[in-house]
Amino acid sequence: MDAGEGWRVYSTPAGELRVYTHPCVYEPAEDSFLAIRALSFLAREGYRPRVVVDAGTGSGILALAASRLFPAALLLGVDINPYAVEAARRTLQGADASLLLCRWLSCIKGPVDLVVVNPPYLPVMDEVRECRELALAWSGAPGVLEEACKGAARISRVIVMVYSSLSNWDAPACLEGEGFRVVEVFEESYFMEKLYAVVAERGG
């Protein structure tokens, strides 16, 4: 069930996060929390990024988690959905964050220290949703995952990327093809699906 507009509190590996939701913005779910697990791993390993980009920020929950885990970092949230940019703006009130309305990372030249990307990974468009923006957040057109991977690789030293077994797409292979080394993979199993969060860093 989709969230209505308003504030919600989510219990995550980065602590309780207060997030502003909107009916036309992807509601934080299992994939969001898996990405936060990966970010928490980086924090425990002592990684201290100066600039963190949340590509496809949605409600802003991943950027908010990053602000807790990496309090000295400058945060950039990017989304093509104007409802998401506004929701994230409310979520990130008080954080050292900027929000940009653009497709993936096309508006960022880099370099940056960390990109976290939770792209729309379902293989088909969900036609029943009332908001086209929300449908796009669930289901990516062909090539979206590859675009997200290569866009992150273009600007960042370290990448956290979420993907699903249903997408029939290999994120580690894409990242390795872009010169990254996979450091850690987190996974969760659900009825007919596995979700993965990959942590990768630029090799050499």
Can you give me a brief rundown of this structure?
With 204 residues, this protein is α/β, with parallel strands linked by helices.
Topology:
Elements: E1 6-12, E2 15-21, H1 30-44, E3 51-55, H2 61-69, E4 74-79, H3 82-91, E5 97-101, E6 112-117, H4 132-138, H5 144-155, E7 156-164, H6 171-177, E8 180-190, E9 193-202
Parallel strand pairs: 3-4, 3-6, 4-5, 6-7
Antiparallel strand pairs: 1-2, 7-9, 8-9
Helix pairs in contact: 1-2
Describe the structure in your own words:
The protein has 6 helices and 9 strands; from the N terminus they run E-E-H-E-H-E-H-E-E-H-H-E-H-E-E. It has 204 residues and is an alpha/beta fold. A 7-stranded mixed beta sheet has the order 5-4-3-6-7-9-8. The chain has a two-stranded antiparallel ribbon with strand order 1-2. Helix 1 (30-44) runs parallel beside helix 2. The radius of gyration is 15 Å and the shape is globular. The mean pLDDT is 87.
Content of β-strand: 25-35%
Series of secondary-structure elements, N-terminal to C-terminal: EEHEHEHEEHHEHEE
**N/C terminus separation:** 45 Å
- Tell me, rounded to a whole number, the average pLDDT: 87
Q: How would you sum up the global shape? A: globular
Spatial strand order of the main sheet: 5-4-3-6-7-9-8
* SS elements, strand count: 9
Structural class: alpha/beta
Largest sheet: 7 strands, mixed
Into which percent range does the helicity of residues fall?
Answer: 25-40%
Question: How many helices?
Answer: 6
**What is the radius of gyration computed over CA atoms, rounded to a whole number of angstroms?**
15 Å
Seen as an oligomer or otherwise, the chain set is single chain
Low-confidence stretches: none
